[in-house]
Amino acid sequence: MMGFGGGGAVTWIKVVVAVLVIVEYGGSGAWGQNSQQGWLNIDCGAEVDYKDGGTGINWVSDAPYITNGKVGTITGYSSFPEAKTLRYFDQPQGKNCYKLPVISNGVYMLRATFFYAAYDNAPNPPTFQLAIDGTVYDTFTADATIGQWREVFFVAQSNVTFFCLVRDPTFNSVPFISAITLKPYTGKYLGFNAYFADKRLIRTVQRVNFGGNNLIRYPDDPFDRYWFGQGTNTSYLQTATPLKVLNTTLPIVNTEKNAFYVPWPVLQDGLQLPAPGNMTLLANGGTEGDSDVYSLAEICLHFAELDETANITSRGFDITVPRPGGPQVFYENAFNYTDNFTPIPMPFTANTWYFWDLIDFGPSSAITFSPSPNAVRGPIINGMELFAITEPADLTLTTSGNALALEAIKVDMKLTAWTGDPCVPVPHNWVNCTLNTKTQQLEVTVVDLSGYNLSGTISPSFAKLDGLISLSLANNALTGPLPDLSTITTLKSLRLENNALTGPLPNWLTSLKSLTKLSVQNNNFSGEIPSGLLAANYLQFTYQPGNPDLIGGTSKPSSSKSSSKVGIIVGAIVGGLVGLGALVALVVCCCMCISRANARKTAKSQGVSLSEIAGAKAFSFAQIAAFTNNFKRKIGSGGFGPVYYGRLPGGQEVAVKVADSSSHQGAAEFHNEVELMSRVHHRNLVPFVGYCQEGANQILVYEFIDLGSLQDNLFGTSSRNAEAFNWNRRLNIAVNAAQGLEYLHTGCVPGIIHRDVKSSNILLTSKPEVAKVADFGLSKLTSDENATHVSTLVKGTAGYLDPEYFQTNFLTFKSDIYSFGVVLLELMTGQPPINTSPSSRSAGSLVEWVRQNLSAGDIDKILDPTVKASKPNMDGLWKVAEVAMICAEPKGVHRPTMSEVVQELRAALALEVGSTEDNPSEVSSNDVSAIFSGSMPTGR
C-alpha cells in the first residue's frame, strides 16, 4: 500500500502501523529559503550576542531568559562557539527553568545542547531530567568525551514556555546546559499533527546521513537539523558482504512535493550493496548502552539512486517492517520516478518511506531490505530519522492567576532564583499545590517561606492566591505593616512570628472565618488588638512574647506547644513509655479482628447509594473481572483485603483492592471511603480511580504504583540497588510522604487523619523524586473544621501505634506524627518498628533502641550500612534524627505539626544537597580531544 504525489499535492494512506509516502525532489525551491526568521538561538553563559562566522547563525546571551545559575567555561570545540560557555545550577532548587517566548498553540522544535567536558572535575557525569512546562520528557546523562543534544517537538500551551532542567534526587547531580535552539515547526513531517492533537511530545532519537563523513547542519540544512555521518563501518546496518559508499555532486530532483525536505548533502551520499544481498537496519544503531524501547515510534527512510549506470530494473528491493500482527512488506525502487512511473533521465531523484505508529520499537527491532528477484544491485539507503512519541502529556498547569501572583511575589520578596511554573513538573520547595477538580488546574494552597532570610515588606500579591490555606513567613527579617489579605477566605493558618513587622493588627483578620491559627509573636506590632481575635474560641492566637505596644487582652498561649528540636537525653527519660505502648499495640492488633466482625453485622443492614459521588468512576463487577483477568495477579494485601493488578481498556495500570470476608465494611463506611478518595488530590497521594459496590462486592480501584512500597524496598523481596537507595533518595521519600500527610492534615477541609501511617503505605514511583502515601481505608475525617481529635476504637499497626491514642481512644493529627516518626527511623536504620529476633541489633522496640543510642551520642550505631556508604551530611542526618525522636514523643503535646516536620526535612535535604555541590562560580576545563562532529551523539 502506498500513496503517490500527484497534482501538486501529497496524498497518503495509513496502513494500521505503517504509512508509505513516495515523493520527488527538484532544484531549489525551499532550499533557497535560508532565513532565520522566528529562530531563537541561546548561548548559555555568553555575555554578548554574536554571529557564528562558520554557519551564519545568530546567537544571543541567555541573560534575558534565566535569573539564576553560574557560568562555567570549557575549551576544545572550536567548530562550535556556543560550546565555550555553559550555565550550571548548584543551588537547592528542584528545577531551573528558561522562560521562552512562544505563540500559544504554535508548534516548536526545541534542541538543548550539552558540552560537558568534565568542567566540574566531578567523579561522575551529572544526570538530570528535561521538561517542557509540566511534562518531563527525557532523562539526560552527560558524557565528558562528546557533545550531546536532545531535540523535542511540542505545542505551546500559552505565550510563554518554560524549558526546565529538573534535579534527579537519585543522582544528586548539578544540572547544566550549553545552548538552546527554539524554532517554529513548519510542518516538515507527515503524521506529526495527529500526535500533537493527542497531546504528545515528539522526541528526535537520531538523524543519520549514510555515506557521509561529517555533521550536516545549517546552512546545508536550512532548518538547522543535525545529520550525523555514517560510513561503511556503521553499526546501524548489518550485511553479509561489505558496504560501499556512493556519492554524487549532481543535483537531486525536487518538484517541491516532498514534505520532509531532506537536504541535498544527505541525499548525495549513500551506502549500497553492489551485488544483491540482504541489508538489516537496527533501530538502536548499536549505540553503546542503548537499551531503550520506544512504546510508540516513527521512522523516515530516505532513498536516492546515485549510480549513473543504473536503470529502472537494476535495483529493486523489499522493505520488511516489524509490527505486532506480523511483518509488513513494501517494494522500493529508488530509480527516477515521475507521477506516472515513467522513467526520466538524470539528474537523480529521491523518495521517502514514512512509517508511523511503530509499537515497542527497540534494540531487537529490525527493518530488513531484500533485493527483488531481477535486481542486479543490492539495496541502497541515504538517510534515516527516528522519532520517539511520548505518552499524552500532562498539560495540568497552575492557574494563570496563581502563576502571575507568584511571579509578582518572587520579584517583591527577592525570590527570582525560583523559576518556572510554581507547581510543575515539581513544585518550588516552599510551595504545595492542589488540583482543582472543577477547572482541572493546580492551585497554590500552601506557601512556607519560614527561615528563607527574607527582608523588606510582605508582597501584597499574596492576596491574589485566593485558594491559599496556609501561609508561613516566620523566622525572617520582614518589616512594615501587614498588607490586606482579606481576599484569602480559605486561609486556615497564618504564621508571621519572629520578624520585625510593625503597625496595627488589622481588623480584616477577624473576617477570615477559616483561620484557626495566627502567630505574630516577636514582632513590633502596636495598637489595639481586634476584639474578634481575642473572642474567637476556635482561633489559636499567639502574640506574645514581643509586641510590647499591643493593647488589650493577655497572652493567649498556643494550645499545642512544640519545638522543631528536642533534647534527646530528656527523651530517653520518658522513652520507656513508648516501648510499653509498642508491646500493648501487639495485643490491640489481635483484638481488631473481633471488633471488625461485630461492626460488620451492623453495617450489612445499611444501604447507601454511591451514584452521586463526584469524580469517582463506578465500575460493574463484570468490568472489574475483565480488566483484572479474573483477579489473576495478586500483588499484595492490606487491612481492606487482597490487592490485584489490572489494566483498564485505555491502557492505564491500576491496583484493585477487594474487601475480604473478615474486613468487609458496611455500606455507610464504604460510602465514606469512596467520598473521601474522590476529593483528595495531591502529587504525594496515590490517585483514586473508581469503585465497585455490587451485591456483596466492595472494591476500590487506585492508580498502580510500579516500584512497590517503602517496606518492600527496605525489608522485602523487592530487589534494590544499594547505591540508588542511598540517603539522598531516602530523604526525598521522607519529604514526599510528609508533604502528602501535611496535605491531609491542613489542605483538606475538614482535615483528615490518615490513621495507619507506616512504611508499607508509602509507595515508590519510577520517578525518584516522587513517592506517594497510600491506603486511606482506615482514614478518619475530623468532625468539623476546628476539631483537633476524634474519639474512636483503636485501629492501627503494631510498632506504629501512638501510645497516647491507645490509652485514651482519642485519635489526633499527632497520632499520624508519631507513626511518621517511626517511618523516619526505618529509613535511617533499615530496621522494622518491632523486631522479635533476639539476635537482631534492634531487638524489641525500634523507637526505644534508637533513643538509647542517641542519648549516648552514638548515631553511627543505628545507621543502615547503605546510609553510611552514601556519606551523608552529618548535620542534616542529626536533624532528621531529632525530628524523628520528637515525632515519637509519648505525649502528643510535645510533638510537632506535620507542617513543621516538612519544614525541618526540607532543611535537612538542603544540607544534604549543598554538601556535595560546593563548586566555584567560574570553572574551566582544557584540551578536550573529542569533537562534536566527529562522534555520534545520541538524541535520546
From TrEMBL:
Any GO molecular function: ATP binding
TM region positions: 566-594
Topological relation to the membrane, as annotated: Single-pass membrane protein
EC code(s) of this entry: 2.7.11.1
Residues annotated as domain Protein kinase: 629-909
Keywords from the named record: Leucine-rich repeat, Membrane, Receptor, Repeat, Signal, Transmembrane, Transmembrane helix
Cellular component, GO, one term: membrane
Statement: the UniProt record of this protein carries the keyword Transferase: no
Superkingdom, taxonomy of origin: Eukaryota
Bias type Polar residues, positions: 916-928
Subcellular location: Membrane
SMART domains: S_TKc
Catalytic activity: L-threonyl-[protein] + ATP = O-phospho-L-threonyl-[protein] + ADP + H(+); L-seryl-[protein] + ATP = O-phospho-L-seryl-[protein] + ADP + H(+)
Region called Disordered, residue ranges: 915-940
Signal peptide positions on this chain: 1-32
PANTHER family to which the protein is assigned, alphabetical: OS07G0107800 PROTEIN-RELATED, REPEAT FAMILY PROTEIN, PUTATIVE, EXPRESSED-RELATED
Name of the featured protein: non-specific serine/threonine protein kinase
Organism: Ceratodon purpureus (Fire moss)
